[in-house]
Design a protein that fits this description.
seven-stranded parallel beta sheet; Rossmann fold; 44% helix; 2 domains; DHQS/DOIS_N; NAD; alpha/beta
Length: 402
Amino acid sequence: MSVNASMVRNAGSVEEVHWQRFSVPFEYPVAFSRGVFGTSNPVLAELIARTEPDKPHRCLFFVDGGLLEALPRLKEQIELWCRAYADRIELAAKVMPIPGGESAKAEAAHLTAVEEAVLEHGIDRHSCVVAVGGGAVLDAVGLGAATAHRGVRHVRVPTTVLSQNDSGVGVKNAVNFKGVKNFIGTFAPPWAVVNDFEFLEHLPRRERIAGIAEGVKVALIRDRAFFEWIEANAARLTAFDRSAEEHMIRRCAKLHMKQIAGGGDPFERGSARPLDFGHWSAHKLESLSGHAVNHGEAVAIGIALDARYSVLAGLLPDGEEERIATLLQSLGFRLYHPALAGSGEGRRPAVLAGLDEFRQHLGGELTVTLLSAVGIGVDVHRMNPDLVCRALEWLKRREAMR
């Protein structure tokens, strides 16, 4: 920490300004495992108690309601696991269900329930709030943990492809507000993340496929070799070959972690958001479709749209957008939805409003990541509406030809 003084002039007088500067290191483990709530698997207990291993830590567990429907014995398994590691884990209350999907983020009552539980059960800043579920559940519970007591330890156990390879390993928590996605939130690094691959086996096919979109996204902006690996292994990924799926999730998660740690802006104080490639239209499409299009599906469409735009803008070589779209389709994505045809102001496509909403979310000038090559993202600060409309027409024509 340092405090420096500088001098400024104010109405002819000289004022002294002190600049306080300090840095706080952030670190948290991201583990990959199977059967994390098996009584013979200590990884979660070790990570929760890693700084104070000689005492039990009070923990609240919130579990995705959809996951509990698929695995009705999960509550009992968590309770048995806590008893097996009673030297490090103290279950502060019964396991609490929370609605899965966007409903977890759409109603303030779910956020309030987390904060109330922290208060009621005496969870302090050395206790843990553990969220088990998809990305929306992790977001809502994480925000509750980040705001109660100005931040209690939050442990994530992501259970979907999308949360294991992307959102679950990051530092953001958020809920929606008046229909605006992720309007209320914080940057609060988790205490630990444990990805349990066994949970993926209980996902619906549609949801399991959707998470692959984030792998394609990060490969396109950061890792050409990874993109080529996805191309070569598309059939294995859609067949949910265990080794292929796990490799995709690990590589995608590591690339996201590398960007957060090494991109120079982990708490997004600037305007660049390379990990939001394809997202400006995706977020708007989710809303326009009434969430009939899920996040991964919307991201796939957004990737194809911005790839075509990159070609039209002279950034990406012609033909590369076809390569990208072909891969996405081979993975099972449809690349057009009728909601994209909805009209907004001036009879322009309503999805164009997503650009202004994206700029507002950034808090500065518009910055959109496009492509200059497969594996190389490039930031632009203006999107030509006419080129966006042409890219939308391209998607519509491709869909009509299927």
